[in-house]
TrEMBL record, chain A:
Binds 1 lipoyl cofactor covalently. The lineage of its organism: Eukaryota, Viridiplantae, Streptophyta, Embryophyta, Tracheophyta. Its main location: mitochondrion. The H protein shuttles the methylamine group of glycine from the P protein to the T protein. Gene3D superfamilies: 2.40.50.100. It is found in: Mitochondrion. Residues 46-128 form the Lipoyl-binding domain. Keywords: Lipoyl, Mitochondrion, Transit peptide. The modification N6-lipoyllysine is found at K87. This is Glycine cleavage system H protein. One of its GO terms (biological process) is glycine decarboxylation via glycine cleavage system. The glycine cleavage system is composed of four proteins: P, T, L and H. It comes from Musa acuminata subsp. malaccensis (Wild banana). It holds the Pfam family GCV_H.
Automatic annotation (TrEMBL), chain B:
InterPro entries: aa-tRNA-synth_II/BPL/LPL (IPR045864), BPL_LPL_catalytic (IPR004143), Lipoate-ligase_2_inactive (IPR053264). It comes from Musa acuminata subsp. malaccensis. Residues 38-226 form the BPL/LPL catalytic domain. CDD domains: LplA. Gene3D superfamilies: Bira Bifunctional Protein, Domain 2 (3.30.930.10). This is BPL/LPL catalytic domain-containing protein. Pfam families: LplA-B_cat (PF21948).
Length: 155, 264
C-alpha cells in the first residue's frame, strides 16, 4: 500500500510538471457526451460523432484512425473503431446505436485533425440513429465538464 | 492479522502466466482475447519465441517498414498486431512481458498512454536497479541511449494492455530485414540498428534474474498468483477488424509489386 501511494504521488507530481495535458479541455455547449469521451452532434435522426478535446489531449498525437465501413452497425457504448497515438491503440466507442452512413476519409491522410479540430474537421463517423431515446443517457456540456474535472482530480 | 496479510487484502490479484518458446502469433492472439474477454489482471511472460518473426503495429505498412525482397526470399513471417507502435523482429533472443489490467487496478493511474508508460518505467527502473543506467527514453526502455525494450499498448473501455519485447539477445543479420523507420524517436538521432540497440544480456546476469525481479516488483502493486496456460479455456479468436493477423504471402507480394511500380 505504501509503495502504491508513493508511486501515485510521484505520478501525480510527474503529471503536474509534464506537458502532456493542459488541465482544462474545451467543451462545446450543444453537443452530447459519453463517459468514454466521445461527443455527438444531433441533427434530427442523424448523429455526427468524434472524440473530445479532453480525449485527444490525453491520448497525444494521433497517427492513425481505424474507420468502420459505411453500412456497419454501431451500438451504444460499444467500440466501432480506434485511434493510434504514441504507441497505443485506443478504442472509440459509439455514444448511440445505428447505421454508419458516412466516415471521415480525410482522417486517412490527416489523422492529426482529431487533435487539431476534435469537434469540427476531426469528426469520425456519421450515424443514422436507431433510437434517439439513447441521447437521454448522455451528458450535456456542463455535466461532461464536471465529469472531466472529477476524473482528472482522482488521479 | 500481520502487516503482510493486511497488505495482501488490499492488493488486486494478478494472474501470472509463464510460457516458453510460444510462437508470437499465438501469444498475441491470447493477449487480445484476455484483454477483451477476461475480467482479471494478467502478467504474461514468454521467455523466447520459436522462430524469427517480424511484428508490425496496427497501422504498419509493409512497403514502408520492411525489406520485402529479402523477407519474401527468406520466408520470414510478418504479423500485424492489435496494438500500436513500431516494427520489431523477434526470435529466440527476445523476452516478452505483458501486463493486462483493469483500468482501476493501479491506484492513481489514468488509463491513457503516457501515464501507463510512465508507470511501467517506474516498475522496470526498480527491476533493473544496479544493472545499468536505465531510462524510459520517450517510449522505449534504454540503457543510457541504447534501446533494449520496445513497447506497445491497447486501451479499451475498462482495460488496457502494455506489452514489451525485450532484446535479451539479437542477431544483427535479422535486423537487416527492417528498414530504418520514418517515424522514430528523437533520441535515436538517425542511428542504424547496430548503434541504436543493445543486448540485455550484457547488463543483466540471466533471463531468470530479470523475470524474477519483475515478478517481485509487481508484488508492490498486485497479489501475483501463478496460472497455468492449460487452465485457460479455448474460445474462438476475436474477429474484430484490428485483430492480430499473419500477413499472407500474397499480401506481401502485392506490397512488393506496388513498391516496385512506385519506384522512379
Amino acid at each position: 500500500m505504501a509503495s502504491r501511494l508513493l508511486w501515485a504521488s510521484r505520478a501525480a507530481s510527474y503529471l503536474r510538471i509534464s506537458a502532456f495535458h493542459r488541465g482544462f479541455s474545451t467543451v462545446i455547449k450543444d453537443l452530447k457526451y459519453a463517459d468514454t469521451h466521445e461527443w455527438v452532434k444531433v441533427d434530427g435522426s442523424s448523429a455526427t460523432i468524434g472524440i473530445t478535446d479532453h480525449a485527444q489531449d490525453h491520448l497525444g498525437d494521433v497517427v492513425y484512425v481505424e474507420l468502420p465501413e459505411v453500412g456497419a452497425t454501431v451500438a451504444q457504448g460499444k467500440n466501432f473503431g480506434a485511434v493510434e497515438s504514441v504507441k497505443a491503440t485506443s478504442d472509440v466507442n459509439s455514444p448511440v446505436s445505428g447505421e454508419v452512413v458516412e466516415v471521415n476519409r480525410e482522417l486517412v491522410g490527416s489523422p492529426g485533425l482529431v487533435n487539431g479540430s476534435p469537434y469540427e474537421n476531426g469528426w469520425i463517423i456519421k450515424v443514422k440513429m436507431s433510437d434517439t431515446g439513447e441521447l437521454n443517457s448522455l451528458m450535456d456540456s456542463n455535466r461532461y465538464s464536471k465529469f472531466c474535472e472529477e476524473e482528472d482530480a482522482k488521479h | 492479522m500481520t502487516l503482510a496479510q493486511a497488505r495482501n487484502v488490499v492488493l488486486p490479484c494478478m494472474k501470472l502466466l509463464r510460457m516458453s518458446a510460444v510462437p508470437i502469433l499465438e501469444q498475441l492472439h491470447l493477449e487480445e482475447r484476455l484483454l477483451r474477454t477476461s475480467v482479471d489482471n494478467w502478467c504474461i511472460v514468454n521467455d523466447r519465441t520459436n522462430r524469427p518473426t517480424i511484428v508490425m503495429g496496427v497501422s504498419g505498412r509493409p512497403s514502408e517498414l520492411i525489406e520485402l525482397k529479402s523477407v519474401l526470399r527468406d520466408q520470414i513471417p510478418v504479423i500485424k498486431r492489435f496494438t500500436g507502435g513500431g516494427t520489431v523482429i523477434v526470435d529466440d533472443g527476445t523476452v516478452f512481458i505483458s501486463f493486462i489490467c483493469n483500468k482501476n487496478a493501479i491506484s492513481g493511474l489514468q488509463p491513457y498512454p503516457h501515464p501507463i508508460m510512465s508507470w511501467t518505467g517506474q516498475l522496470y527502473s526498480e527491476v533493473l536497479r544496479g544493472f545499468g543506467d536505465f531510462h524510459l527514453r520517450e517510449n522505449d526502455y534504454a540503457f543510457n541511449s541504447h534501446k533494449f525494450g520496445g513497447n506497445a499498448q491497447s486501451i479499451i473501455k475498462e482495460r488496457w494492455i502494455h506489452h514489451t519485447s525485450f532484446l535479451w539477445d539479437y542477431d544483427i543479420k535479422n535486423m537487416e530485414y527492417l528498414k530504418l523507420p520514418t517515424r522514430a524517436p528523437k533520441y535515436r538521432s538517425a542511428r542504424p540498428h547496430v548503434d541504436f540497440l543493445c543486448r540485455m544480456k550484457e547488463y543483466v546476469p540471466s533471463k531468470s534474474t530479470f523475470i524474477e525481479r519483475t515478478i517481485k516488483s509487481l508484488g508492490s502493486y498486485f497479489l501475483v498468483k501463478p496460472f497455468d496456460l492449460d487452465d485457460i479455456t479455448t474460445e474462438p479468436p476475436c474477429t474484430l477488424p484490428h485483430s492480430t493477423k499473419l500477413l499472407s504471402r500474397q499480401e506481401l507480394e502485392d506490397a512488393y509489386s506496388s513498391q516496385c511500380e512506385n519506384l522512379p
